[in-house]
Amino acid sequence: MVTKTLMGYSVAVFDQIDQLKLHINIDGFPLFKSSKRSGWPVLCSIVNLNPVNVFPISVGIGQSKPSNLDFLADSIAEINHALKEGITYQGKHFQVALQCVVCDAPARAMNILACDHFNLFLVLSTAICILVSTKLAAEHVNYAHQLLKYYIKWACELYGQEFAVYNVHGLLHIADDVIKFGCLDNCSAWRFENYMNELKKKVRSGKNPAAQLVKRIYEETDRNNGIQYSVVIFLKDNIVECVPSSWIEKSTNKLVCYWPSGKDLKRKILKQEIPDKDLWDAYPVKLVGKPEYKDYEFACRIAKRAEETSTVESEDDDQERSRKRPSRYISPDEYDEADGYSTDVVA
Fold first, then answer.
1. What ranges does the record give for the region Disordered, renumbered to this chain (predicted)?
2. Cβ atoms within 10 Å of 252's Cβ, excluding its own
3. How far is 120 from 126, CA to CA, in rounded Å?
4. Which of 89, 104, 91, 77 is nearest to 46 (CA)?
5. Burial class (CB in 10 A: 0-12, 13-18, 19+), 51
6. Which residues 6+ apart lie within 8 Å of 94 measured at CB?
7. Range 221-224, long-range pairs (CB < 8 A, 24+ positions)
């Protein structure tokens, strides 16, 4: 998944670095209001690439909070392999370093504040404002640390010793994190929390939520990486089609294209749905024009032009042969209709 993420960046970015610095996050989110089912993704970001994007390494689905860490075994193995062996991309080898594991603590809402409580809250706010600013954190990190110590001491006086739970105690250490990683935004859990919401939106029904997540993530990754459409001729029927490039693969020195059965064919093409190789048929094909086109409409025009050429050649070869388009294919006229087709994902 790390390699797929790298495909979304300009090649020039990698000339400036020899190491990929990772931040890892593990947290859970509820899938549905009517069920206790929840997702537990292992998320990652490469913090020395700009922009810093979040992507999943794995996603676990369960009926409750995990009782042990067995579901992390594959992810840990993958991360350890990357840390040990590094990653090769575009002919360049990168060392991989795990800079930190970012975990959040539950946010607690305070009651309506009295004067003493409000003033104490201002102490906390001032300390955090210093630590989230790159400039202020560099100059006043020790002062912010003293403010946080003051806040914890007097918060226990105002709210009682039971206030000093683990997330309050954690405030004593965030100044050390700023000294090590820079301002708080560099090691904040917010980007991972925001991505949790994006993951939740990808699950549209209670049927096979893990499969839904995997398919949506790969579809989104392929779109972002510019892996778009190819124009092919199906050799068996001499039919020209515009298909997602991800539907084509090399098999025993031949190109084959996976083709879905059933309805919603245009939707599957436009959404670049991942082929189900157990259910989809594979047909021998050859490419027309360039291997890939980023623009769907342009690829459709290439397909129509190739279709017209193919028709003329077929009529010249055999005037008596009638050429009937199999029902599983899209007619050339339908390419124009697809321009206004809805691209909403449905499960």
1. 307-347
2. 5
3. 10
4. 89
5. exposed
6. 14, 17, 18, 19, 20, 86, 87, 88
7. 221/4, 221/5, 221/8, 221/55, 222/246, 222/272, 223/272, 224/8
pLDDT at residue 10, as a whole number: 66
Distance, in Å, from the CA atom of 30 to the CA atom of 27, rounded to the nearest integer, reads 11
Q: Whole-angstrom Cα distance, residue 23 to residue 40? A: 17
Look up residue 109 and give its amino acid. A
Query: Residue 295 corresponds to which tokens in the numbers above?
Result: 């623009």
Q: Quick one: tokens of 303? A: 């397909």
| Opening angle at CA 271, ends 268 and 274, nearest 5 | 70
Enter the tokens of residue 5: 């993420």
Retrieve residue 272's tokens: 């670049």
Of the candidates 230, 267, 273, 274, the residue with the CA atom closest to the CA atom of residue 341? 267
Q: What is the DSSP letter of 248?
A: E
Question: CA–CA separation, 107 vs 110, rounded Å?
Answer: 10
Neighbouring-strand partners of residue 283: 257
Tens of pLDDT, residues 186-221: 888 878 888 888 888 888 777 888 888 888 887 777
pLDDT mean by block of 10 residues, the chain; 347 residues: 69 80 88 82 87 86 82 87 87 87 54 64 86 88 91 81 74 88 83 83 81 79 67 88 86 85 80 81 88 79 80 43 44 42 33
SS (H, E, C) 257-277: EEECCCCCHHHHHHCCCCCCC
Amino acid found at 9 = Y
